[in-house]
Amino acid sequence: MLPQWPVPLPRRLSVPAWNATIPSSSTAPFSYPVSPAKPPPPLGDNDPHSGVPPAYQLRPMSPLLSADEFRRRKAVIIQAAIPAGTLSNELSSWRRWVEHCALWGTDPWRSYLPAYSTSPDCAGAREDLLTLAASFIESCYLTMRPRSRGTFPKPSSAYKKWGDIARIHQREGLPRLDPTHLAQFVKGLTADYKARHGFDALLVRRKEPIRDAEHAHLL
Q1: What Å distances lie between residue 30 and 20, 23, 212, CA to CA?
Q2: Contact present, 161 and 14 (Cβ < 8 Å)
Q3: Domain 67-199 is of which CATH architecture?
Q4: 3-state secondary structure 37-73
Q5: In contact, 37 and 19? CB cutoff 8 Å
Q6: Model confidence, pTM
Q7: Which of 33, 51, 122, 157 is 20 to 30 Å apart from 147, CA to CA?
Q8: Burial (CB count within 10 angstroms: exposed 0-12, middle 13-18, buried 19+), residue 89
Q9: 27 has a pLDDT exceeding 70
């Protein structure tokens, strides 16, 4: 059985500021962050172009062309298409993720590419990444606040927090971690949830529809 809910949160850690914003549009009430601080280049090779044949490397023939400038513009365009509510949720999840990684003494940008490989030579790096992601899901499950009185945070809601982090990483060009292992872990958390709160606690609660007599009374 997991520790009893709720678990006290650790002392709040400082969270790096997000370093860019999307200009406000006519439909957005305020600006939303584009992305967390830019990640470091992928680790594994000192030169990100190492091993790439010269014929496939970008070699602009015009001084007006810049791969780095285009990548920055592309990032802004991609972020601008994301719903404001999604960006707000991602910001909240990213803050949790930064604090979690600080507790584990590691970088929130998982840019060590061998960790995403299934090669036996990369098993240690992959296991570290899976441990970090799974422990983040568990931490969210144990510390999230319920949305309404008499309810409890669900493992599926905690898993969505990891989904936010995975999307942020992917938008910066990092691979997506195979979700099979994490899905098995969430299944175990769901079994723990049912043992604590009963199966009915997993059901979606909706307001009862208005009855015919009440509807007639309002007309």
Answers
A1: 13, 8, 42
A2: no
A3: Orthogonal Bundle (1.10)
A4: CCCCCCECCCCCCCCCCHHHCCCCCCCCCCHHHHHHH
A5: yes
A6: 0.68
A7: 33
A8: middle
A9: no
